[in-house]
């Protein structure tokens, strides 16, 4: 057990005096160790390759200054890769971005936690969540310091490739949505619930597609995403979708008398196919009147290779509008309109800090207050889950509510395929039973959860 860090958690330290230790790459052979050792250098190498490939574009746009900037960014990223591989201490950020101060304070704070046996804040000695987030922030710093090409997203091409390679699945989904919207008014409650459950499962399995886990390969959705849902049901380890349905349908029924709005927030994860599933779900929630207001929360900088930022959404919509399949272009036109008029896109810097979510009410008071206005917050993906439960070595049976450690802005649900060894809220014996038949169950993205917390 680890002592809670008062400086970071503030008053929370009083509520929770002991917490399980955080995941860390310290131990050779552990999953965090292997991911930092093998996967992150590959991600950096691919980022460097992306800059190389755009050399002539930088020259055409900016002349010699562009070429110099490309060289500078490459040398900063190579230096970063070297720091990582030789386990050098973390350096403070030197750019002038708004969050640099918070990052540097976080580094200082981790220094204050050090004791005799734990000598430095470095790539293999620090909490894994911090190490990974720090790497993506340093990649951003390398670009920021390389003006005039600071705008360049080193992961853009991989995100775009995922979209193109998932064309068939995207077409199937768009066509399904357009057809569903035509008949939605005539569905009875049971039929509507069936569609709700079906689309949410598509959203869940869409999270298999992240690119940080397999930097060398894109995982496109080639088969029909709808046809495989029944076969995948046994892999849903926690299924609280009924709570989500009860919450939204009861608000819809009572809305006339009591509630004026039902607000659903998506804390988004990956671009490409997964993003399409989010937009399909949002469109369905509004068309079915299960929700009246949708907020999307994206990342403000390139993050964990495939995470969605504002440009990725607008790029996707342009692609859909230009598609020569009617259902896709219709989705593109509708979603562009919704983003102008009703869907709200926000990208708070907190989402790209290394902090676990139980600190949000102190570190990002404004964002916490914003989320308190929601009626249901959907946290997409593995990284969001790690931040929700603090990336700690919890027992499988610890209740989700407890692992959230005081983070309860509104009813929330994690929708995540398992890619790291963090999981709470399982039935007694459930985790051990799966380990017997499938020892890799926590890391392959084969299993998923819909895990809800909140009052109904
Ligand atoms: O959040 P996502 O996109 O579902 O997954 C992100 C991820 O692949 O990146 C990290 C790689 O080590 C892990 O947190 C996780 O496995
Ligand atoms: Mn992601």
From TrEMBL:
Q: Write out the function statement from the record.
A: Metal-dependent phosphatase that shows phosphatase activity against several substrates, including fructose-1-phosphate and fructose-6-phosphate. Its preference for fructose-1-phosphate, a strong glycating agent that causes DNA damage rather than a canonical yeast metabolite, suggests a damage-control function in hexose phosphate metabolism. Has also been shown to have O-methyltransferase activity that methylates glutamate residues of target proteins to form gamma-glutamyl methyl ester residues. Possibly methylates PCNA, suggesting it is involved in the DNA damage response.
GO biological-process terms attached to the record: DNA damage response; methylation
Comment field on protein domains: Subfamily III proteins have a conserved RTxK motif about 40-50 residues from the C-terminus; the threonine may be replaced by serine or cysteine.
* Any Pfam family matching the protein: ARMT1-like_dom
Enzyme Commission number: 2.1.1.-, 3.1.3.-
The name on file for this protein is Sugar phosphate phosphatase
Q: Which cofactor does it need?
A: Mn(2+); Ni(2+)
Claim: Manganese is one of the keywords in the record: yes
Family the entry assigns: Belongs to the damage-control phosphatase family. Sugar phosphate phosphatase III subfamily.
Per the record, its GO cellular-component terms are: nucleus
The record's InterPro entries line, in alphabetical order, gives: ARMT-1-like_metal-bd_sf, ARMT1, ARMT1-like_metal-bd
Keyword annotations for this protein, in alphabetical order, are:
Hydrolase, Manganese, Metal-binding, Methyltransferase, Nickel, S-adenosyl-L-methionine, Transferase
Q: Name one GO molecular function term.
A: protein carboxyl O-methyltransferase activity
The UniProt record lists the keyword Ribosomal protein: no
Question: Can you state which reaction this protein catalyses?
Answer: beta-D-fructose 6-phosphate = dihydroxyacetone + D-glyceraldehyde 3-phosphate; beta-D-fructose 1-phosphate + H2O = D-fructose + phosphate; L-glutamyl-[protein] + S-adenosyl-L-methionine = [protein]-L-glutamate 5-O-methyl ester + S-adenosyl-L-homocysteine
> Which superkingdom is the protein from?
Eukaryota
Ranges of residues in domain Damage-control phosphatase ARMT1-like metal-binding: 38-433
């Amino acid at each position: 057990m680890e002592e809670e860090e008062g400086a970071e958690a503030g008053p929370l330290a009083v509520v929770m005096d002991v917490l399980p230790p955080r995941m860390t790459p310290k131990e050779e052979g552990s999953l965090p160790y292997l991911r930092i050792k093998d996967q992150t250098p590959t991600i950096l190498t691919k980022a460097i390759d992306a800059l190389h490939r755009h050399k002539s574009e930088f020259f055409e746009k900016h002349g010699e200054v562009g070429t110099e900037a490309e060289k500078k960014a490459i040398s900063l990223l190579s230096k970063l890769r070297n720091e990582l591989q030789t386990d050098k201490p973390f350096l403070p950020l030197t750019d002038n971005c708004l969050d640099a101060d918070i990052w540097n304070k976080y580094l200082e704070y981790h220094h204050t936690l050090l004791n005799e046996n734990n000598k430095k804040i470095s790539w293999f000695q620090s909490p894994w969540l911090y190490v990974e987030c720090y790497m993506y922030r340093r990649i951003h710093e390398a670009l920021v310091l390389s003006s005039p090409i600071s705008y360049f997203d080193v992961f853009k091409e991989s995100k775009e490739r995922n979209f193109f390679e998932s064309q068939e699945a995207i077409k199937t989904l768009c066509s399904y949505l357009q057809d569903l919207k035509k008949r939605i008014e005539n569905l009875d409650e049971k039929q509507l619930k069936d569609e709700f459950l079906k689309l949410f499962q598509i959203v869940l399995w869409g999270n298999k597609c992240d690119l940080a886990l397999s930097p060398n390969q894109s995982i496109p959705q080639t088969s029909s995403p709808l046809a495989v849902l029944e076969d995948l049901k046994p892999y849903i380890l926690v299924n609280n979708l009924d709570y989500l349905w009860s919450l939204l349908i009861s608000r819809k029924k009572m809305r006339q008398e009591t509630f004026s709005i039902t607000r659903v927030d998506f804390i988004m994860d990956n671009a490409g196919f997964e993003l399409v599933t989010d937009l399909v779900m949002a469109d369905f929630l509004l068309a079915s009147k299960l929700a009246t207001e949708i907020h999307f929360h994206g990342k403000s900088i390139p993050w964990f290779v495939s995470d969605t930022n504002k440009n990725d959404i607008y790029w996707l919509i342009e692609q859909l509008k230009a598609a020569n399949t009617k259902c896709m272009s219709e989705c593109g036109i509708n979603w562009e309109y919704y983003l102008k008029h009703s869907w709200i896109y926000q990208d708070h810097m907190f989402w790209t800090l290394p902090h676990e979510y139980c600190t949000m009410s102190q570190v990002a008071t404004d964002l916490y207050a914003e989320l308190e206005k929601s009626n249901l917050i959907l946290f997409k993906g593995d990284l969001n889950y790690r931040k929700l439960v603090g990336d700690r070595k919890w027992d499988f049976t610890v209740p989700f509510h407890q692992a959230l450690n005081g983070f309860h802005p509104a009813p929330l649900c994690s929708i995540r395929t398992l890619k790291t060894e963090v999981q709470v809220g399982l039935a007694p014996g459930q985790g051990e039973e799966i380990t017997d038949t499938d020892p890799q169950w926590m890391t392959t993205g084969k299993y998923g959860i819909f895990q809800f917390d909140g009052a109904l």
